[in-house]
Amino acid sequence: MSVDDRPTLSAPDDDPWLWLEEIEGKQGLDFVTRQNSLTLDAFGGAAFARDRDILAAIYDRPDNIPYVSRRGDDLHNLWKDATNPRGLWRKTSLAEFRKPHPTWEIMLDVDQLAAREGEDWLLSGITTQKGSARAILSLSRGGSDAVTLREFDLDTKSFVADGFALSEAKGGADWLDADTLLLSSAHGEGMATSSGYSRTVRLWRRGEPVDQAQTIIETTADHMAISGLVDDTAAAPRSWIVDQIDFFNHALWLRDADGTTTKLDLPTGIWLQAHGDWFAMKLREAWSIEGRTYAADTVLGMSLSAFLAGSRDFAVLFEPEPRRALQGLFWTGGKLVLSILDELQPQFEICTPSATSWSRASLGGLPQIGVVDIWPLDRHPSESNGDLLANVQDPLTPPSLLLMERGVASPTVLKQAPKTFTSDDLVVTQHEAISIDGERIPYVQTGPSGETGDAPVYMSAYGGFAHSVKPYYNASLGKLWLERGGTTVQANLRGGGEFGTRWHDAGRLAGKKLSHDDFAAVAADLVRRGVTTAKRIAAQGGSNGGILITNMLVRYPDRFGALFCTIPLIDMRRYTKLLAGASWIAEYGDPDKPEEWDWLKTYSAYHNVKAGQPYPPILIATTRRDDRVHPGHARKMAAKLQAMGYEAWFYEPEAGGHGYGKDNKERAGFEVIGFRFLKDKIGWKDEG
């Protein structure tokens, strides 16, 4: 990069790069324009265009799986390809969907809508009402989290004149009845929490100005958000109100058809799902009630009416083990489905309640290795007959979409994704590294068999928010890294949810630094095992993983050859002041509290970067339309590193939201810039 383009450290302020937080400020945009030009000049060109087009063609293939949900008798799908980069909302029948080439009925062409209205529209959500032809569509500009709400008629396939419409804000709405919405939106003066989400739930009646909508419940600005969800599975209509205190804690209210609101006397750190007169919940912390103590991660179930009448006679539906943890739970057709990882292997159990007990059964016919995801086919739980969809894959096996009718029949294959890269000589193996405190850290390695000691390795991880990283089939890595002779490694760091709450808690707040030690331990283990050398390891992480990658830069620079940091958090002193940052205090801590800043500053790479260190080259990339993680994090870190004389590159396309692009070509371009940078900096002369 040009030395002449480096910013200087002449500003006297505590943070001389604050001006880069002005997303649309002229000086900031000039910086972005210059930086993009430098990055594209260095890593763009004919080879970039070739690989971008290869990848975009894979994403746009007509034989990719069209994922669906059932609304009434129809299967709905949002489809993107080269002809329809913004997407088509379309529908078909289950019988038609089973055919190799189903016929689809187009509900909305988003590209035509965007062109007609001159807006950068993407369709990010569809909320329908059971038995009704009306929907609320959530339209996003460029992929941002904030959306515009508009009423749509499914019969006429058009927006409703003088129907419900709300300008851009974070949040959404659910149908209470044909003429009333349960509105959970930050739209309006004083309606947003400090995290930027809704602080009220309102009843918005047809024809009524939204600022006159009745507020039925509100939370304080320091809570993360509050939302309402209509539940039509019970004998009488009801709604759930969720006051999201922080990312992991919430209070629950049940609102009856007559408007009576009852707060449930439950711990705040739970996952709860209800269906009819039954509910089940997973505890985040140990809970003692009526002489019994239930361990963290236990799943309890009971009758909702009995609970409201005072009973606390819970049935224990799941008990955790050190490396066996619940990943999710949902109801379908009156049955509760539990998703479990046991030593990272997928398992599923079905629990069925009755007046006297709960029966239990394992969901059979599915692989015990790789990745298996299961969810209900039906959008409206009250319409479900128990049909399930399953997605099955591994790093070398493309996804299969399976149907399990009524949740018990043997799975049948509905769709098979195409094989998009050559994998004949590749193998998948699982290993464990020993972290700094002796904990075993699993990781999955994919690539050629045998250890060469010089493999070009692409490492990735996340390590936060109890999110479990799974070894999915990755078309981009497969085509542009594995097929060309490289190796990929995916690590399961503490902070994730692979082994339950204790695994998550070990890697959050002050423990976040330990999560980063885990990643560094995996890098060291690859060298110890003779897979590669440190200079041949390229690492990538995004969002929370951006904290990870910048900590590899400043804490473990000798273990990596190049780093790719995407849509990242980095400045942990100011993160709570930027966009949705305050919503993550429960994961990281509050920098305005001195005792919490004491640990936050240990992994705030923006404050720990020092001159004269052996930092590897880094590319920091974000998107201007990311209204979740502020692009200022990436901008400021790149500017500071450049001013210190380091090889730090920057890339910021305009659209994409908290992702890599608003369409398949933009997404492919974002990824390929990263691949080409990493390959160049680890000395891999890949000609493709």
Features:
688 residues; alpha+beta; Rossmann fold; Methylamine Dehydrogenase, Chain H; 3 domains; eight-stranded mixed sheet; five-stranded antiparallel sheet; 20% helix; globular
Outline the structure in words.
The protein is of the alpha+beta class. The protein has 3 domains: 29-57 and 420-681, 3-Layer(aba) Sandwich (Rossmann fold); 119-263, Methylamine Dehydrogenase, Chain H, CATH 2.130.10.120; 267-418, Prolyl oligopeptidase, N-terminal domain (Methylamine Dehydrogenase, Chain H, 7 Propeller). Strands 32-33-35-34-36-37-38-39 form an 8-stranded mixed beta sheet, with helices on both faces. Helix 8 (512-528) crosses helix 9 (544-555). The radius of gyration is 25 Å and the shape is globular.
At a glance:
With 688 residues, the protein is of the alpha+beta class.
